Amino acid sequence: MDRIAAFAGQDLEWLQPKTLERYYELQAGPAQLATLTFHSAWGTLATAETAGGAWTFKRVGFLNPRVTVRVAGSPDNLAVYQPKFWGDGTLTFAGGLAFRWQPTNFWATEWAFTGAGDTPMVRFKSGAEKHKLSDIFKTQTVVELEPEESIQAFASLLVALGMYLIILHQQDAAGAVAATSAV
Questions:
Q1: Does 127 score more than 80 pLDDT?
Q2: Domain assignments of the chain as residue spans, ordered by start
Q3: Are 6 and 26 in contact (CB under 8 A)?
Q4: How far is it, in rounded angstroms, from Cα 88 to Cα 127?
Q5: pLDDT tens digit string along 37-86?
Q6: N or C end of the chain: which has fewer CB within 10 A?
Q7: What is the C-alpha to C-alpha distance for residues 21 and 41, in angstroms, rounded to an integer?
Q8: With helix as H, strand as E and coil as C, how does the chain read?
Q9: Which residues does residue 83 pair with via DSSP β-bridges, in sequence order?
Q10: pLDDT band at 155; cut points 50, 70, 90
């Protein structure tokens, strides 16, 4: 796998190869840059693997939900994502560095991690570059990584975590629709 930061300024794509599998690949043309694998069909524990490192993501808590980010195999949190009511929130690293996660359009089909001054550093747009009928039930996302020095050290982690958060957001929305229609 190649380093994600080297592809800054280019469109990257998270693709779901098989509709019913919770496995995703980050592609830049023919190059595979990362994978995101959920450990079970219903759980929230996932592992992201890139050339820049491997991390686990897990949503924890019921009344105060958050997502923990850990280096794979470590029991200590590297960072914690604290969501707000509408799905946006803040990713805070153990050292205090923080990135904001927020929608960038009204329909929340585009999201971004932003730095100081709400400048988008990594953008995520729902869908794929090339649409096929067989992709209709797949979660796929185009990623735009800004070529800024300040984000280079965090690029791999932010690109992987952003896809994880999009998947959780879609699951929550689907669950809300199912609960509403059951009533």
A1: no
A2: 4-170
A3: no
A4: 20
A5: 999 988 999 999 999 899 999 999 988 899 999 999 999 999 999 999 87
A6: C
A7: 8
A8: CCCHHHHCCCEEEEECCCCCCCEEEEEECCEEEEEEEECCCCCCCEEEEECCEEEEEEEECCCCCEEEEEECCCCCEEEEEEECCCCCEEEEECCCCEEEEEECCCCCCEEEEECHHHCEEEEEEECCCCCCHHHCCCCCEEEEECCCHHHHHHHHHHHHHHHHHHHHHHHHHHHHHHHHHHC
A9: 89
A10: very high
Residue showing tokens 């153990």: 94
CA 12 to chain CA centroid, Å, is: 13
Q: How far apart are the first and last CA of the chain?
A: 47
Q: Cα separation of 103 and 114, whole Å?
A: 10
> Superfamily assignment of 4-170 in CATH?
LURP1-related (2.40.160.200)
pTM of the predicted protein model = 0.89
Query: Which residue type occupies 108?
Result: A
